[in-house]
């Protein structure tokens, strides 16, 4: 196992800056997930740690040793790609043991390592097959097994589930979590899927435009996003973001006025808010319900996404440019619906997209 440290890591391809001075410390044995939209720099950052891309400036340290000038094969890492990268003419056993063979290990040592990895991944019965005889999930396990036999200090995963169907992705998420628990090795995982990130990570690194927007546990990023970008990226359905203006102090915190004239009470301190300031009000769909006496909004039901246990209701509210999405346990019975926004669950962002400090509160009440 090993720590990983990035200090002012930057990478440019010609005039295009892909990474813009990344500082990040990854603890020994952590499961870290890099997440963000396409083009945010997450795969480039992973490849820089692996040594497959040379940084333009800055340093990468693995286990306290700077490795900028160290070959990928000497960094103590193993990388699993989304394409699996298996040799089609080799059996599963040969694929898994190939790196050890190149390293000059004995046949007995290779067989022992391959058998142990295959047992961990439940693929011992596949060892004599070739990749074309395997399903996508089985190929992914073989690719992981090939990494495990090398006993790396750090595992790197580059969108390893992106080629799998939805049901298999869910199953493989659990398998990745179990693998990390069993091995206890530092793992760095790249995905564009925030559900994968929330499911797997000890901490999530949210990247946007080559910079880190926020680093934190899944709960931290969900409950206390630092920016509008993080608020909109983490959570499904995404947080509702509503233009508003500061309307003055209320009984428990700042009040804001929406474009339709509705006044909403929050529990956010008024200290840092200028009179009449332009703000963005944030509320997650699951923090709206049909019960509650305060912060009521009435709208027209434009669409309902029914998912069995939950119904995502799209409401057109007077004065708002975009419908609000409320996640409710029952389908609305009429075309008009009145909902309440839980004051303790509301977020406010300034005109630069930065979150205003929220009080330390217990979890907001569940939507009714």
The strand order across the widest sheet is: 6-7-8-3-9-10
Strand-pairing-aware structural class: alpha+beta
- Count up the domains: 2
What's the average pLDDT?
91
CATH architecture of the largest domain: 3-Layer(aba) Sandwich
A few lines on this structure:
By secondary structure, the chain is of the alpha+beta class. It has 8 helices and 20 strands.
How would you describe this structure to a colleague?
The chain has 368 residues and is an alpha+beta fold. It folds into two domains: 4-230, Rossmann fold; 237-349, Beta Barrel (OB fold (Dihydrolipoamide Acetyltransferase, E2P)). Helix content is 23%, strand content 32%. The chain is built from eight helices and 20 strands. Strands 6-7-8-3-9-10 form a six-stranded mixed β-sheet, sandwiched between helices. Helix 3 packs across helix 4.
Question: What are the SSEs and their pairings?
Answer:
Blueprint: E1 4-13, E2 16-26, E3 31-35, H1 42-50, E4 57-62, E5 65-66, E6 77-80, H2 92-102, H3 107-121, H4 136-148, E7 154-158, H5 166-183, E8 186-191, H6 194-200, E9 203-208, E10 211-216, H7 218-223, H8 228-233, E11 240-249, E12 254-258, E13 263-265, E14 278-283, E15 288-289, E16 296-306, E17 311-317, E18 324-328, E19 336-341, E20 347-349
Parallel strand pairs: 3-8, 3-9, 6-7, 7-8
Antiparallel strand pairs: 1-2, 1-4, 4-5, 9-10, 11-12, 11-14, 12-13, 14-20, 15-19, 16-17, 16-19, 17-18
Helix pairs in contact: 2-3, 2-4, 3-4
List keywords for this structure.
368 residues; alpha+beta; Rossmann fold; OB fold (Dihydrolipoamide Acetyltransferase, E2P); 2 domains; six-stranded mixed sheet; five-stranded antiparallel sheet; 23% helix; 32% strand; disordered C terminus
């Amino acid at each position: 196992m090993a720590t990983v440290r990035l200090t002012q890591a930057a990478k440019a391809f010609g005039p295009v800056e892909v990474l813009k001075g990344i500082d990040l410390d990854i603890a020994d044995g952590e499961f870290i997930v890099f997440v963000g939209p396409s083009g945010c720099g997450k795969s480039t950052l992973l490849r820089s740690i692996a040594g497959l891309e040379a940084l333009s400036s800055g340093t990468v340290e693995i286990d306290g040793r700077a490795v900028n000038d160290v070959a990928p094969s000497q960094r103590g890492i193993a990388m699993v790609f989304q394409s699996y990268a298996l040799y089609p003419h080799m059996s599963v056993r040969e694929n898994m043991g190939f790196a050890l063979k190149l390293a000059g290990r004995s046949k007995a040592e290779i067989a022992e390592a391959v058998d142990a990895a295959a047992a961990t991944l439940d693929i011992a019965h596949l060892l004599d097959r070739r990749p074309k005889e395997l399903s996508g999930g089985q190929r992914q396990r073989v690719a992981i097994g090939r990494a495990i036999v090398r006993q790396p200090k750090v595992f790197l995963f580059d969108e390893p589930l992106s080629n799998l169907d939805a049901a298999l992705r869910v199953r493989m998420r659990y398998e990745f979590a179990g693998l990390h628990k069993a091995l206890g090795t530092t793992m760095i995982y790249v995905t564009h899927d925030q559900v994968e990130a929330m499911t797997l990570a000890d901490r999530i690194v949210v990247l946007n435009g080559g910079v880190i927007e926020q680093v934190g546990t899944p709960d931290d990023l969900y409950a206390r996003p630092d920016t509008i970008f993080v608020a909109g990226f983490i959570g499904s359905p995404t947080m509702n973001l509503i233009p508003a203006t500061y309307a003055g102090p209320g009984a428990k915190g700042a009040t804001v006025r929406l474009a339709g004239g509705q006044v909403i009470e929050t529990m956010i301190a008024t200290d840092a808010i200028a009179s009449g300031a332009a703000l963005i009000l944030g509320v997650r769909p699951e923090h709206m319900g049909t019960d509650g006496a305060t912060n009521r909004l009435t709208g027209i039901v434009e669409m309902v996404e029914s998912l069995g246990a939950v119904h995502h209701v799209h409401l057109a509210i007077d004065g708002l440019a975009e419908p609000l999405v409320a996640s409710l346990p029952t389908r609305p019975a009429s075309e008009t619906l009145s909902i309440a926004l839980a004051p303790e669950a509301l977020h406010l962002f300034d005109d630069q997209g930065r979150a205003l400090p929220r009080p330390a509160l217990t979890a907001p009440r569940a939507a009714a």
